[in-house]
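Reply to dn_fold:

You asked what the input looked like. This is it:
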Amino acid sequence: MPSPLAYHLDPLHDPHGLSARPQQRPTPGPGQVLVQVRAASLNRRDLLLMDGSYPLPATPGVIPLSDGVGEVVAVGPGVTRATVGDRVSGTYFQRWIAGPQRLTHTREQYGANHDGWLAGYVLLAEDSVVHPPDYLTDAEAACLTCAGVVAWAALTRPAAVLPGETVLTVGSGTVALFAVQFARMHGARVVSVTSSADKAKRLREVGADEVVDRTETPDWPQAVRDLTGGDGVEHVVDAVGLPTLRQSVAASAYNARITLIGAFPATVPVTDPFAGGYVSVRRIAVGSRTDFEAMNRALAAHRIRPVIDRVFPFAAAADAYRYFRDGDPFGKVVVTL
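and this is what came back:
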């Protein structure tokens, strides 16, 4: 049997930013788990890593992608969290298990400075192992690690959204889609802001109660306030970032909570974004293993499925990257082996 392939980030020497090379089956050491990959998926972070604009530079030649699922085929000495034959995913940060995130946690990331999932095999630290819900397909289970967990953390920490509260999602990428699903799971009303009539229709199908098309309604903060009787929303999940922070503040109720999602290049200067608003703004980066496991229990209880836009075969991984960058996907872009 020929050796499996692994894709490596190589933007300086390869026109597609990826190079495929044969991969020898790794041997797990103490505390390590070897997984044969079944599926993996892309996030915005993977484009930033390829472009060199992610806050944590990619190790040259690293195998990309933080999100994936596969079957355990070997374990190293001392491993207790997984056995051969288990279907598993991995955490985004290699060693953030619970509690507050520390700077040291952010410096160890799969697909950035530890080899990720775009390969035949991935070698995980035992602390990284998570068992996804059984009812999800491999393609669906490969969508959870980044966008799913960060949306879950945004709506459950430091306190969970309450039934009857209103959540505003800004953007229509995968984080926003998960946020719509999780907010509805918690009994909240969901208002979403997007950029086209087609996306508005699909957001309603995912679960948004109201959708504002910013191309038709440029003053969308006022439209959101009108939908809330002038009060504004209690929670904002802003997956766009600094370009929309001022509008998110303007759409917020007194003492609202705004969560800015993830890593983004700070290319848009923002001056006095609060404009008198009294809000708590935080910026979070995915979540811990404990967050991941809590999300999986909720997914299984409510039988929620991730939104998938398109699935590519492993041999077309470069096409998956191009489509994710230029194709305006609605939902996750997945690569299957």
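The CA atoms of residues 110 and 225 lie 40 Å apart.
Hope that clears it up.
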